[in-house]
TrEMBL record, chain A:
It is found in: Membrane. The keyword Membrane applies. The keyword Membrane applies. It comes from Pseudogulbenkiania subflava DSM 22618. Residues 171-375 form the Cytochrome c assembly protein domain. Pfam families: Cytochrom_C_asm. This is Cytochrome c-type biogenesis protein CcsB. GO terms for biological process: cytochrome complex assembly. Keywords: Cytochrome c-type biogenesis, Membrane, Transmembrane, Transmembrane helix.
TrEMBL record, chain B:
It is a multi-pass membrane protein. The chain crosses the membrane at residues 21-41, 74-92, 166-184, 611-629. GO terms for cellular component: membrane. GO terms for biological process: cytochrome complex assembly. This is Cytochrome c biogenesis protein. It comes from Pseudogulbenkiania subflava DSM 22618.
Length: 380, 674
């Protein structure tokens, strides 16, 4: 992900092809229609976010070509689902396609299944050194991501069918952000997989996604956490729309880094050595993941502080969630320093990345489960 | 990092240490660990809670270590200060070198150093043209400088991505800026004032106007964060700041008046909106600013931001019916009170202090009594998993009030009374909770309501149950009924009557537990079960007659005889029995209210915020520059028919190998093709 230095020195606009422009045009039209239909319900910040995300998504498509196919596909599936609903939530249980494939819960359950399958296939591919199985693993991961993303978009729509005052973007509770985590981690992984042409990494990265999927299933079947709940006042803010996804790019990257750290340690200790890519390459991808994660986590923490200033009256209250975000951040800052300034490489950093993900998961989950604070919305 | 050739004095080694990487990492680690403590140990709780939790010794020890407010303790702030110093020194130390580096092209690099670089190659080139190579490098975005050595060879020194080093400055200066902003808002002057005893937190619960000068902060105070609760149609011109085991009073430059507080609910009972309509009146100019503050939508006046932080009862006038439990035949008295205040109360010749807690107009409860989740079948779970909407049976069960009744010895019981009829399993009740200590959960009584949804019938029944003068009549009727149904023989008549009277007397005195006590003391264990059954049966038969007699006496309509009303009577027995443990001789039935709400407002002045945001922006820019701009240097040395190409970067990765190969191929083509 070197932004500034690429061998092709032609200016950006010369490097773009027809498909790039078509993609951009599609997104601009989609944003235009959205604005035309819903602009009246948005405040100025939300309009800003709409414009910003349109630009951002176009940029992402130009930077990562696979995105140009992924996004329209997921969008089309969601539109199909919306079409089938005909404005009536009950059709989710009666219309065949909604009931079994396209309603948000069905799509998300398909996503879960496909992620499990992908994990198994990646592992078989790794152990048998089969390129074909590796490709199948990628295909399954892509399909899971498409359905998951479409499911989230559909869920967004469904929330408005429940009640116009209840509708909101699905990044507001633990269930929704877990799906988001799976999606972001999978997509980032798919990017690295293509860039480094190393499908063997999938076996490891998909393990952490599978763990998250396991949580989603437990949360759904045992706790009914998938039900759409209205937003409590503290969450009714446009900050949520950017703070939460930015955080999850961070969490996703740190998880990828930890799993690659494990792979790297295995190679360094001589296990699966003949089946996995070289330790140096795993090291490099691990570093890149942490670098991206650190940037986004920094941004997310800053956004969180700005939101806190609006919602709670202070940009920093040493609330447990904030404090743990700081701890995570300090941890990776130290990691980056010893790597870049002290020149550490290999085993110790790989171990550190693995431990880092435990710190991160505590910040993500442990704080919600064990510590109370403003993030559990105790005051209002 | 090379050592300057200055000899190592003490101050230099100190500088060396403070600006070193390991010192910085050490500080980061300590901050992380200290932060963990602050999240595990709940911060800023009332001090008695800590003393209760840890015992006296640890309570004092932890207090001394400042663990109840880690992030404002002197040692934590000191570490932060060291981090600022360390980072500043690091910038001072690396800065000059980095700046020189950013400017330098290193065109004087020697042949041997070029050859020693990891990416370096030499090849034949008979007719290399410097102009062409310069053109190539410029096209690739390099800036370059040439140098002709004394021996006639030409060195083209090129570089790009100098902004990477700029990133170091951005990110690290950002840290200093953020910490300074934080220290400013951490209110260092106030902390120092407290340290030297100029400012003393108040620990007593005084009216605001009586709080002494040493605990008050003037409006000139640079930064603060405090809270105040304002009831509807009341005003506040100060906020309270928690400080250790006390609080400080911060004067505001304006007066805030709460006009109205709003809560809205979603259809499923979850809160949807908390908002306060306020008017802010400037003390100096008298200018009034009306506004509505909501969660996520603060109001900023005079550099002070006003936030919606919490809400509650603001002291609502209430009406009660006081039922004298000791003289049950008396009609209820009328009592008035105001929530959140206390007043004396005399009941049955004893003096009590009636301390009202919070009045709540809405109580949203989950009425769902569906199957336990664990009992669901797989198919049901699959079905549930598909639906994003499930209708929860949330219901507003109406107003409630909590209060304590404290006797002359200072002992208090706490009560939680609802006002509206609450339906349970098809019958309506008045619900009242009682507990002896705050640590216990409330035990709830269900007083059954009559056809008019009043407790009067129940109270009448209870009065009759406790009135021995009626027992003869009741026993006579019960016995007659029993004989009619041939449940007893005429010979047993006398004995049965006595039993009924005896059971009524026992029950009237002490409820079911009195009967149980008797059984435990007088009846052999193996017979208890059977005797108890008999007693209950007799009681359940007699209660119908108790009701009938009571109604006749009061001139009230007789109770319809059906299952629903029989259940009313059985429920009444249970309720009458439980009322014996109620603890005080008066039952306060909430009968009316005028709601007055209060809004908790948080007000802050944080001049450091701008610095923190500026620092944050710099931090992001800095990180982007450091990570995503690669500093690359490239040298081409031309002379004696040969070309040497060398390349370095501050980040080594596989892209660099690839780039080197491509540059080399392109340049080889250039120098050969020409
Ligand atoms: C508040 C604590 C600090 C934070 C959060 C912080 C953050 C960072 C970050 C994010 C990087 C980027 C890593 C990279 O180049 O990719 C970095 C690099 C660096 N930091 Fe720090 N830093 C801190 C304190 C220090 C201190 C005290 C020193 C002095 C020893 C220092 C020296 C450096 C150096 C020399 C680099 C590499 C710059 C380069 O080569 O371009 N940092 N720091």
């Amino acid at each position: 992900m070197e932004l500034a230095y690429s061998f092709d020195e032609r200016p950006l606009w010369q490097r773009l092809n027809l498909a790039d422009w078509l993609f951009a045009a599609l997104l601009v039209v989609a944003a235009g229609v959205t604005y035309y239909r819903y602009g009246a319900y948005m405040d100025v910040y939300e309009q800003g976010i709409l414009a910003g995300s349109t630009v951002g998504l176009i940029a992402l498509g130009w930077f990562w070509k696979a995105w140009r196919l992924f996004l329209p596909l997921a969008g089309a599936i969601a539109l199909l689902a919306i079409q089938l609903y005909q404005g009536d939530l009950a059709r989710g249980q009666s219309a065949f396609w909604l009931r079994f494939v396209l309603s948000s819960q069905s799509a998300i359950m398909w996503m879960c299944t496909l992620f499990f399958l992908a994990t198994a296939v990646y592992w078989m591919g790794l152990l048998t050194r089969s390129a074909l199985l590796g490709r199948m693993g990628s295909g399954l991961t892509w399909s899971a991501a498409v359905l998951g993303f479409a499911g989230m978009l559909t869920r967004w729509y469904e929330s408005y069918l429940i009640g116009s005052d209840i509708g909101h973007i699905p990044v507001s509770n633990l269930y929704e952000v877990f799906v988001l985590f799976c999606l972001i981690t999978a997509l980032m992984y798919l990017y690295y997989e293509a860039k480094f042409a190393a499908r063997q990494m999938g076996a490891f990265v998909l393990l952490v996604i599978s763990a998250a999927v396991g949580f989603i299933l437990w949360y759904t079947f045992d706790r009914q956490a998938h039900e759409i709940q209205p937003l409590i006042p503290a969450l009714q803010s446009w900050w949520m729309k950017i703070h939460v996804p930015a955080n999850f790019v961070g969490y996703g990257s740190f998880s990828i880094a930890a799993m690659l750290g494990i792979a790297q340690l295995l190679v360094r200790y001589g296990w699966l050595k003949d089946k996995l890519p070289s330790a140096e390459m795993l090291d490099e991808v691990m570093y890149k993941a942490i670098a991206v994660g650190f940037l986004f986590f920094t941004i997310a923490t800053i956004l969180g502080a700005m939101w806190a200033a609006d919602a709670w009256g202070g940009y920093w209250s040493w609330d447990p969630k904030e404090t743990w975000a700081l701890i995570v951040w300090l941890n990776y800052a130290a990691w980056l320093h010893v790597r870049l300034v002290k020149g550490w490489r290999g085993t110790p950093l790989a171990w550190w990345a693995v431990i880092g993900v435990f710190v991160t998961s505590f910040a993500f989950l442990g704080v919600n489960m064990f510590l109370s604070g403003l993030h559990s919305y105790g005051t209002l | 990092m090379k050592k300057p050739s200055r000899h190592a004095s003490f101050s230099y080694s100190l500088y060396e240490l403070l600006s070193s990487m390991r010192f910085a990492i050490g500080l980061l680690t300590i901050i992380a660990i200290a932060s963990v403590i602050g999240t595990v140990l709940k911060q800023n709780e009332p001090y008695p809670n800590y003393a209760f939790e840890f015992g006296q010794f640890w309570f004092v020890a932890f207090d001394w270590l400042g663990l109840y407010d880690v992030y404002h303790s002197a040692w934590f702030l000191t570490i932060l200060a060291f981090l600022v110093i360390s980072t500043s020194l690091c910038i001072l130390r690396n800065g000059p070198g980095f700046i020189k580096d950013m400017k330098a092209f290193r065109e004087k690099a020697t042949d041997s150093s070029l050859a020693a670089m990891q990416h370096s190659e030499e090849f034949e080139a008979a007719n290399a043209s410097p102009e062409q190579l310069q053109g190539y490098l410029a096209a690739k975005g390099f800036r370059l400088r040439q140098h002709r050595r004394d021996d006639g060879t030409l060195v083209l020194a090129a570089k790009k991505g100098a902004a990477n080093k700029l990133g170091y400055f951005f990110a690290h200066i950002a840290m200093v800026v953020i910490c300074l902003g934080g220290l400013l808002d951490g209110n260092l002057p106030l902390k120092l004032g407290e340290l030297f005893g100029r400012v003393v937190p108040e620990t007593r619960d005084l009216p605001q106007s009586q709080i002494p000068e040493q605990s008050r902060l003037s409006t000139r105070n640079l930064s603060f964060r405090g809270n105040v609760t304002v009831a509807e149609n009341k005003s506040a011109d100060v906020v309270f700041i928690n400080s250790g085991n006390g609080y400080l009073v911060q004067e505001l430059p304006f007066i805030v008046t709460l006009k109205k507080f709003h809560v809205d609910y979603y259809s499923n009972g979850m809160p949807k909106l908390f908002a306060s309509d306020i008017v802010v009146t400037d003390k100096a100019t008298g200018k009034e600013t009306p506004a509505t503050v909501k969660v996520n939508h603060p109001l900023i006046v005079d550099g002070v931001a006003i936030y919606q932080a919490s809400f509650g009862d603001g002291g609502s006038p209430l009406n009660f019916k006081a039922w004298n439990l000791a003289s049950p035949e008396m009609a209820p008295a009328k009592i008035e009170g105001v929530s959140l205040s206390s007043q004396p109360l005399r009941a049955n010749g004893k003096a009590y202090q009636l301390e009202f807690g919070e009045f709540r107009q809405f109580n949203i409860e989950n009425m769902e009594r569906s199957k336990a989740e664990g009992a669901k079948s797989l198919t049901e779970r699959m079905h549930d998993a598909r639906e994003v909407k499930r209708d929860k049976n949330l219901k507003n069960v109406g107003p409630s009030i909590t209060f304590k009744l404290r006797d002359e010895q200072g002992q208090a019981r706490e009560y939680h009374h609802y006002m509206s009829p609450i339906e349970q399993d098809g019958a309506s009740y008045l619900i009242a909770g009682m507990r002896k200590t705050v640590a216990e959960p409330f035990q709830y009584l269900r007083l059954p309501l009559d056809d008019d949804l009043k407790i009067d019938t129940f109270m009448r029944l209870r009065a009759a149950l406790k009135n021995p003068a009626l027992y003869d009549e009741i026993a006579r009727r019960s016995t007659a009924k029993a004989m009619q149904g041939s449940a007893i023989s005429p010979a047993m008549r006398q004995q049965f009557e006595e039993s009924v009277k005896w059971i009524l007397a026992r029950f009237g005195e002490g409820g079911f537990s009195a009967l149980e006590q008797f059984l435990d003391q007088r009846v052999p264990a193996d017979k208890r079960q059977a005797v108890a059954q008999t007693y209950i049966k007799i009681l359940q038969g007699a209660v119908v007659d108790v009701m009938a007699v009571a109604n006749e006496r009061a001139g009230a309509k007789p109770l319809t005889q059906d299952g629903r009303h029989y259940r009313f009577l059985l429920d009444s027995l249970v309720a009458a029995s439980s009322l014996n443990d109620y603890g005080v001789p008066v039952f306060l039935q909430l009968d009316g209210f005028t709601q007055v709400q209060a809004s908790g407002l948080q007000m802050t002045r944080s001049p450091g915020k701008t610095l923190v945001y500026l620092g944050s922006l710099m931090l992001v820019i800095g990180i982007v520059l450091m990570f995503y701009i690669r500093e690359v240097r490239l040298w081409i040395r031309l002379g004696n028919g040969r070309v040497r190409l060398a390349m370095t970067s501050n980040r080594h990765n596989r892209d660099l190998d690839e780039d080197f190969r491509r540059h080399r191929d392109a340049i080889q083509q250039l120098v050969r093709g020409a």
